[in-house]
Amino acid sequence: MSDSTTIRVFRFRLYPTTAQEAAMFETLRLTRALYNAGLEQRISAYKKQGKTVTAYDQQKEITALKAECPEYAGVYSHVLQDALDRLDRAYKSFFARVKRGEKGGFPRFKPRQRWNSFKFKEVWDKKKGQWLSPGKPVDEGRRINIPKIGAVRCKFHRPLEGVPKTLQIVLDVDQWYAVYTCEVPVNPLPATASVVGVDVGTRYFAITSDGEFVENPRHLGKFLKKLRVQQRTTARRRKGSNRRRKSVQMVAKTHRKIRRQRQDFHHKTARKLVREHDLIAHEDLRVSNMVQSNFARSISDVGWASFFQILSGKAESAGRKVVPVAPQYTSQRCNRCGHTCRENRLGEVFRCVSCGHEDHADWNAAKNILARALPSGENGGSHAVA
Ligand SMILES: [Zn+2]
């Protein structure tokens, strides 16, 4: 047993009463208003006096806010702090992007549809080894305690593991969820002595250096079609009408269905890779985005990024290694002799103009990706990429 730990996410469906649900909606409304007011404050202080308002300055004002606006007294302090923390993170990542020379991403005001959660940042008393008030299971595990909202019915379809850290209450279209993060011990799987490179694509979801072709999930197309029909219906309906609101809800539900199917598929695919291999190499998408500013590709990148996130989470808790590698020329480089040029690739076929090596184009790429992750590097290549 190793003593290192990793963070795991546990998500459970909540069944609030009408009054509890109203209180949760009200919490969303107030935290969003706080976020937007905090943003407004930062912008105007900067415009008027060139002054920077820090997260610390804003956190200090929460007590005064509670005294002035009684409605805020009805929200747990940590939940309010978290709204301002989110604003601070948005600012920090904006400045980090500016520093890297990337464009845009100045923090924006949050409309209702882009604010669907609030968070308790502490749920466990480490010293005493027991639950604090937020998130504590009560009523023999049938409900959880949500401060200022009540004991909300919760379906624990599997047990929590490790030490609980935070609790987020999330609204997903018309369903509520309790999302716990827990610190769990790493539980290494037995070594397999197998290493693999994974190339993601649009024709296939992924191709491995072992020659495995992972198809895209089958039912997704059907739902995407349904989504397009529903979106057209919505567009025809009068703004502000009841029928339109119902239609918008339908679209959101189909989106949710697609997202969940995709997630299930990602989990299944990641589980298999982690079970079978000690090391998994893939292209570093953050780099690939900059290299190939291709719109269609950047859209599917979103899906792959969440897949790689799931993969690295599973790998971490299983003691496996995931290695992102530089993506340059993986599809143009000959895996046998290292010759790298555009002419090597003809659609799905790879044919090296130097040594005549033939392969499936993506399979060849997957092998290059694996080679880049191994200590021996890209052997045989006279055209190594800097
Ligand atoms: Zn070659």
UniProtKB/TrEMBL annotation:
Probable transposase IS891/IS1136/IS1341 domain mapped to chain residues: 181-293
Transmembrane segments: none
Ranges of residues in domain Transposase putative helix-turn-helix: 7-51
Residues covered by the Cas12f1-like TNB domain: 304-369
Keyword match Zinc: yes
A Pfam family assignment: OrfB_IS605
UniProt keyword Manganese, yes or no: no
InterPro entries: Cas12f1-like_TNB, RNA-guided_DNA_endo/Transpos, Transposase, Transposase_put_HTH
Keyword vocabulary terms for this entry: DNA recombination, DNA-binding, Metal-binding, Transposition, Zinc
Family assignment from sequence similarity: In the C-terminal section; belongs to the transposase 35 family.
PANTHER family, per database record: RNA-GUIDED DNA ENDONUCLEASE INSQ-RELATED, TRANSPOSASE
Name this polypeptide is given: Transposase
Organism (species): Deinococcus aetherius
Lineage, broadest ranks: Bacteria, Thermotogati, Deinococcota, Deinococci, Deinococcales
